[in-house]
Amino acid sequence: MGDEKNASFSLTMLDVGQGLSVLIEADGEYLLYDGGGRSASSYVVSYLQQHGVDQVRWLVASHYDEDHISGLVGVLNTTEVEEALLPDYAADTRIYQSLQNAIAEQNVPVVTPLQGDLYTLGSTEIEVVGPGNNHYAKDNDNSLCLHVSYGNFQCLLTGDAEQEAEEDMVRSGQDLSCDVYVVGHHGSASSSCDALLDAAAPQYAFLSVGEGNPYGHPAEETLESIQRRGIALYRTDKQGEVTVYSDGDRYWFSTASCEDWTHGTQTFSDESVATTSPQEALFILNTHTKKFHLPDCPSAAQIEEQNKAYADVSRDELMSRGYTACKRCAA
Length: 331
Known about the structure:
The protein is an alpha/beta fold. Helix content is 21%, strand content 25%. The chain contains eight helices and 19 strands. It is globular, with a radius of gyration of 19 Å.
């Protein structure tokens, strides 16, 4: 065990509630992987300012869900950013456009990485291990996944990548082994599949999740899978922000691991989904059957007009409101 003064590398999982934001420092340079949602934006900006971070070498959006990129907009407006790493797809949402506008206004160069690309942060090597392609049906599977190596310490970050993308990463034969695994998709049952956990074989898991969130995160089966492998757990909903430090040979943590393995419970809000115009819609809703469809789904065309609504929110947001995905179009 050491203290932060002996560490030339640190990785901090910020407490952004139901979202994700990870700050990496290596040899005086910084990488910010996601920035949490709207409610956490001012906290992320304040955290950087309080810790003297006035320049970010790499600003990374794993994917374009609101709970991952809203805080990045705030950072772009307050902090010098040298380059942005963005996944190679577009989203038809207001927050995505806000991110693009902020990047353009600050003249930040954008890189769209490919699997296998290598980047550096100080003496840290960062390999892009996912996505394996840019043609996944789910935006979550398009998440930029990074394997971070600093001396003998390794970490794996997978955004909200789900089982299909995880298994593709394993099949690629890349080195996914790590000491710390940042748990995919806030501990959702659709992520952290057995193949990935076996390939990564982490000793520790960092879980960013909001207390009492309506999605049921973290899922009971995901926690059981982590615990069964003897992986020690750190989680923001019980411990707040957590940091792992390293000097390249050893690594240590800002606090002891969490002994609370309580899983989430899915609840549905009575609050209605905010609607948008048909031209801006990511999904078409059947308010009677509580199904959501992709705009080009044949079933969507059969919805009676009085039961039809249009939404530009995420799948997770719709599911939190009690909607289920159409099986025909795999929305």
